[in-house]
TrEMBL record:
Residues 147-327 form the Mur ligase central domain. Residues 45-142 form the Mur ligase N-terminal catalytic domain. It comes from Vibrio cholerae (strain MO10). InterPro entries: Mur-like_cat_sf (IPR036565), Mur_ligase_C (IPR004101), Mur_ligase_C_dom_sf (IPR036615), Mur_ligase_cen (IPR013221), Mur_ligase_N (IPR000713), MurCDEF_pg_biosynth (IPR050061), UDP-N-AcMur_Ala_ligase_MurC (IPR005758). One of its GO terms (molecular function) is ATP binding. This is UDP-N-acetylmuramate--L-alanine ligase. Keywords: ATP-binding, Cell cycle, Cell division, Cell shape, Cell wall biogenesis/degradation, Cytoplasm, Ligase, Nucleotide-binding, Peptidoglycan synthesis. One of its GO terms (cellular component) is cytoplasm. Pathway: Glycan biosynthesis; Cell wall biogenesis; peptidoglycan biosynthesis. The keyword Nucleotide-binding applies.
């Protein structure tokens, strides 16, 4: 279990053991640094937007490899604080002088080309690379396992990491979200294994050249990147799979209709997983008991595995099956797989159980989830219904991006009307300009016109606690949903312990 490893490394040791551990760490570090000898010419690496989940993970691994790391962001957060504690130099705000000592500058697609640090780097002829290019350099001399797909990447990456850690293989991992059992979204391991989330949102995952690739599903998302052409998106996934060497493996979810359609076009070894009868790694007899899923995994030529998975939902059973397929091909012991599934604590903001609270009018449960695509919202609702069928489901939903709300408007309306009570925040813009008719108020109006539920529109999230206080009932399951800053709302509600009296005072 990752937690156990963390405690062992951080607990006090006798002097002699401390010395041995220090020597071993030094030897491991020297071995790791030797993996990418060409990058020894690089001394200082600067990240623009270092507070983001993907950027911070790479920065943390490079920091632990011994590079001088600096970075800038518009505001401090828990991630920037942790990096600063580890020795990174963090700048709040983007200024030209921040890149003065950088050997290379790493940027994410969220950073505007007019950013003063990008302009300063160009003037100084400092190389500017995208996040995925730097991740590709980390992966180049390692055994890379990349996890791609529209949904489920972060959880699947965490589950693969959990299995390899339980097996004592000490992988390096870079994830797009917090691996709760490790307490971080990235860690430098001592082995040659690197497990990483691969981002298709800007097609930058084409820089990666892994040995194993998982694709969880393919849906129309981030279509601006692909010129609005779904065929272009599908071909990009094919191109990504063909970055595998001829001896590599593609682990593909055959339940997904798009993936099933594309399999004949993949000229690499394919191993399929899913609930489908023809899956190479097949899930049977799924049932959910509260926070846990239980099911059997049937593998060709291997013993069946009776799995207890410590995160809910059929979608997470699929994520687990992908991780099990990779581990099985790597001859990882079944005992390590079973322990990893039972011990996983999930990932941050993925059906994140924040607690059950005495509200002053009974008891209510609070869950926070990152899902922001209709498919993700739908499976989260199903997990809540399957695990807590007796509870009234109160969803606080924040749409993410005007373009996504516009493109998937009817899908959102169809999914959101499934809850018992819907509180709608306005769109989290993520830098986009408003689009008429693609906002929270319009979505509420459409759902209300269908006559199934009467959504409540809350344009100012600061007033949400008082709104929630007026509708909260005994036994409610309150689910905050979205990829914007609704996670802060969830933490605020948890700090208030869903107490009606305290929420009414806000």
């Amino acid at each position: 279990m990752l937690t156990r490893w963390w405690r062992k490394r951080s607990s006090p040791l006798p002097n002699n053991e401390n010395r041995i551990m220090t020597i071993k760490h030094t030897q491991d570090l020297a071995q790791i640094r030797a993996m990418v000898p060409e990058m020894r010419r690089v001394k200082a690496i600067h990240f623009i937007g270092i507070g983001g989940a993907g950027m911070s993970g790479i920065a943390e691994v490079l920091l632990n490899e011994g590079y001088q790391i600096s970075g800038s962001d518009l505001a401090a957060n828990a991630v920037t604080d942790r990096l600063a504690d580890k020795g990174a130099t963090i700048f709040i705000g983007h200024e030209a002088h921040n890149v003065a000592h950088a050997s290379v500058v790493v940027v994410s697609t969220a950073i505007n080309e007019q950013n003063p640090e990008i302009q300063a780097a160009r003037e100084k002829r400092i190389p500017i690379v995208r996040r995925a290019e730097m991740l590709a350099e980390l992966m180049r001399f390692r055994h890379g396992i990349a996890v791609a797909g529209t949904h489920g990447k972060t959880t699947t990456t965490a589950l693969v990491t959990q299995i390899y850690s339980e097996a004592g293989l000490d992988p390096t991992f870079v994830n797009g979200g917090l691996v709760k059992s490790a307490g971080t979204n990235a860690r430098l391991g001592s082995s040659r294994i690197l497990i990483a989330e691969a981002d298709e949102s800007d097609a930058s995952f084409l820089h990666l050249q892994p040995m194993v690739t998982i694709v969880t599903n393919i849906e129309a998302d981030h279509m601006d990147t692909y010129g609005g052409d779904f065929e272009n998106l599908k071909q990009t996934f094919i191109d990504f799979l063909h970055n595998l060497p001829f001896y590599g493996q593609a682990i593909l979810c055959i339940d997904d209709p798009v993936i099933r359609e594309l399999i004949p076009r993949v000229s690499r070894q394919v191993i399929t997983y899913g609930f489908s009868e023809d899956a190479d790694v097949r899930i049977e007899n799924y049932r959910q008991n509260g926070q846990q899923g239980q099911f059997t995994v049937v593998r060709k030529g291997k013993a069946n595995l009776d799995i207890t998975l410590n995160i809910p939902g059929r979608h997470n059973a699929l994520n687990a099956a992908a991780a099990i397929a990779v581990a099985t091909e790597d001859d990882i012991r079944d005992e390590a797989i079973l322990r990893a599934m039972a011990n996983t604590q999930g990932t941050g903001r993925r059906f994140d159980h924040l607690g059950e609270f005495e509200t002053g009018n009974g008891v209510a449960m609070l869950v926070d989830d990152y899902g922001h695509h209709p498919t993700e919202v739908d499976v989260t609702i199903k997990a809540a219904r399957n695990g807590w069928a007796e509870k009234r489901l109160v969803m606080i939903f924040q749409p993410h991006r005007y373009t996504r709300t516009r493109d998937l408007y009817d899908d959102f309306a169809n999914v959101l009307e499934q809850v018992d009570v819907l509180i709608m925040l306005d769109v989290y813009a993520a830098g986009e300009k408003p689009i008429a008719g693609a906002d929270g108020r319009s979505l509420c109006r459409t759902i209300r016109s269908r006559g199934k539920i009467d959504p409540i529109f809350v344009p100012d999230s600061q007033t949400l606690p008082s709104v929630l206080a007026n509708i909260l009932q005994d036994g409610d399951l309150v689910l905050t949903q979205g990829a914007g800053d609704v996670g802060k709302v969830a933490r605020h509600l948890a700090a208030l312990e869903l107490n009606i009296g305290r929420m009414q005072q806000i």
